[in-house]
Amino acid sequence: MVDDQRFQTFLELSEAITGFGRVRLLGTGQAELYFATAERVVGHAIMDELLTAFADLPTRTPELLRLHLFGNEMLGDVVRNLVKLWFGGVWYQLPAIWQQAYGPAAEDGTFIPSPDAYVEGLMWVAIGAHPAGAKAPGFASWAVAPQIPLS
Amino acid sequence: MTATSHDVVIVGGGVAGSLIAKRLSHAGLKVLMLEAGPESTRSFADYNAHLDRFYAASAKGAESPWPPAVGAPQPDGGDIGTGKGYFVQRGPNQYGSTYTRTLGGSTLHWLGVSLRMLPEDFELQTRCGVGLDWPIGYSTLSPYYDQAEHEMGVSADVAQQQYHGLSFTPGYDYPMRHIPQSYSDRVLAAAVDGTRIALGDTSVAVRVRPYPAARNSIPRHSYQPRGAIDLDRRGNPYLLTIGERCEGNTACTPICPVQAKYHAGKTLVEADWRHLELRTRAVASRVLVDPASGEVQGIRYQRYERPDAPNFVEQTATGRYYVLAAHAVENARLLLASDLPGRSGLVGRHLMDHPALYAWGRSPLAVGPFRGPQSSSGIEEFRAGAFRAQHAAFRFDIGNDGWRATTGAPDTTVAQAVLQQGLIGQSLRHRLREQLGNQVRFSLAVEQLADATNRVSIDPAYRDAFGNPRPVIDYRITDYTLAGMAAALQVARQIFARAGITDCTGQDELSFPTVNYQGRNFAYHGMGHFAGTHLMGADPRQSVVDSHQRSWDHRNLYLAGAGSFPSMGTSNPTLTLAALALRIADDLIAQFPNAAGAAAQCGGL
Lengths: 151, 605
Hints:
In chain A, about 55% of the residues lie in helices and about 0% in strands. Chain A is mostly helical and about 150 residues long.
C-alpha cells in the first residue's frame, strides 16, 4: 500500500467527502487507483493544490469543505468528480469550461478506471443494496428489508 | 474442406436450436449446428470475460456484455432512433427491441420470464374477433410446456399459476419452487392484493403474483438444477456447481454472473456430443434449394476466424433436413436473401413485439430496491378478458431495480445530488437512502397483433460487412395496441393510488421512442419479443409453416422460433418457442424410422 503523505491526505479527503470510513474505502481496493486516476487526469500540480487546500482546513466540516473545496472554481469540479468516482465507479469528463480554464487534461473523458471500480461503487452500500451483477447477497435475501450499514 | 452430410443441419445456437440439437443427438441423429457468433460463452473463463466487459461498460444496456462479431452484427439499444446500427428502420414507429448473435443467443441477456400462453391466446380470432388463430391449441402444446419447463429449469408453483383457464397435466408441478417474492413485492401486495381495479365497465381483483422464471430456485423431488457451464481440458462441456441457486445479482438482463438463469449453453452441455457437431463463427448466407422439388439442398455459410475482422471463407453444409433457428428476424432475412419469399409471400411479414410502457413512483414505505432478481412478480389479471375485442391485453412486470430502466438511477441520482444539490458525506448518503429506497417501477407490456404491413424485408442497398443484406424494418403500432397502452396506464395509476404510491411517471425520463395516441405521447420500449415473421397456419396460402413449423414450400425445412407465432398474447415468447422447438424435434425424429440406427448409417458414409 502506498503510505506516503499525499495518499494519506487523499484518503482523509475521501472520508470527508463520501461519509464513509477508511476501512470501507480501503476495502474497495480502489483507493490507490482512484488517487492515481484523478492525478493522471488533472495533473500533479492541481492534485497538490487540492490536497493542500484540504490539509489546511482548520476543521473538516461540510461548511468549510463547501467554502474552500467545492466552492473553488478549479478544485470544485475535481472534488465533485471524486465523489462521483467513489459512489459510482465512473470518472466523468470534466466540464468544458474547466478544460478551457485549467486544462488541457489530455487523459480526461468518461470512463470506468477498472471493472472493479463499478463493482466497488459506494452508492450501493449507501442504500443497503449491491451493484447489479456483483456481490449478490444470496438466495431469498431480497425477500426481507435491506440492512443499511452505518460505517 | 470436404462437405460432410448430416441428418439434420440446424442454423442457430440459441434456445430453439439447442433444444432441438440436444433431443436429436440423443436419438442418435447426426446433427450439425451452425452458429453465426463466436463460442465465447462455452468456458467459464470466457463467460467471465463478458462479465468484466459489462462491469467496464459506461452504458450497461442489454448488449453491453455481448459485443457482436464484425460478420454477425446485431441491433443495439443505443442505436434506436438514431438512424444508425444494424436495423434499417423505415418507421413510422421505431422497433425498440434487440437480440444477441453469440452462441446461446438472446437467452444470454433475457430476464427469464417463462409464462405459458393462455388457452384463449391461441383462439383470439374465434373468441374475440381480432388477430389470428393458431392451427393448434393449448392442449396440444401443454405436454411440451411441461418438457420445456424441465429442460430450461423454470421455478414456479402450479398452485399459483392456474388462472385465465391455464390448466396443467394432473400431478404436474414445475421443477423448482417459485422464486421468493421481493420485499418490495410484499409491501405492494400487502397494500393492493384483492383490491378491485376498474377496466372499462368491469372491475377485476388484482394480485401481486410470482411468475414462472427460468432461474434456479429450490428444486422439487429429484430435479437437479443446472448452474454455470465450462469446458474441461479436452474441450468437453460440463456443468459446474456454481449457479445452482439464484443469488440475487439483480442483473438477469444483461448477464447473470453465476449463470443461475437459464441460457441455451446449458442445454448444449447436455447434448450427446458423439452425434452433435458445433460450428461457430459460421454465418449462414444462403439457403440452397432444388428449383424442381423445392427441397433444401444445403446451407451456404461464411466461416470466419477472427470476430474482429471482415474476412471469411465460404462453405456449404448439407443434410437431409434443415432447421432455421436463427431468430425471428434472422430466419426471415436469410430466406429473403436466398430469394425465398414463399409462395404465400408472407416471409418477413407480421412482425410483432410487446411495446411496453413504464410507470414509476415512490412508495410510502421504504421497499429496498436494487436487490434480488430484476423482477420476481407480476400482475396477470389483464392478460385475458372480453375487452380483447376492443383493445390489447397487457401484463405488469414489477421491477426490483428501482428506476434504473426509466431514469438511470442510481447513477443519475448520485450525479443530481452532487451536482445540483451540492451534497457530500453523510448528507449525500442520507439523500441516496431517501431518494432510492422507495422507488417502484412497473413495466406494462402490451399485446400486439399480427399485421402484414409490419415486416422485415431486405434491400440490396443496405448490407453488412460480409455483404449480407441487413434487416429493413417497417413497423407501426396500431390503435388496438395504443388503446391497450392507455388502459394499462390507467390501471397502473389506480394501483399506485390504492398503494399510496406517488406517481412519478415521466419525471427525469431517459430517452425512449414515442408514439402518439389521441393527443397523448406514450414513451415506449421494446421487450425483445420478436415474433411473427414466418407464420404458422393450416392454409399454405396464408402461412409460411404448418403446425409443426415445417415449411409449406420446402418440406425438408423447419423454421423454429417465435417467427412462427400467429399471435403472442402477453407471454414472453421464449417458453412457447422452446415448447414448439421440442415438438419440431419429435417430428424430425419421426422422419427417421430407425432414429437410433440413422447415425450409424450416416457415420459409415
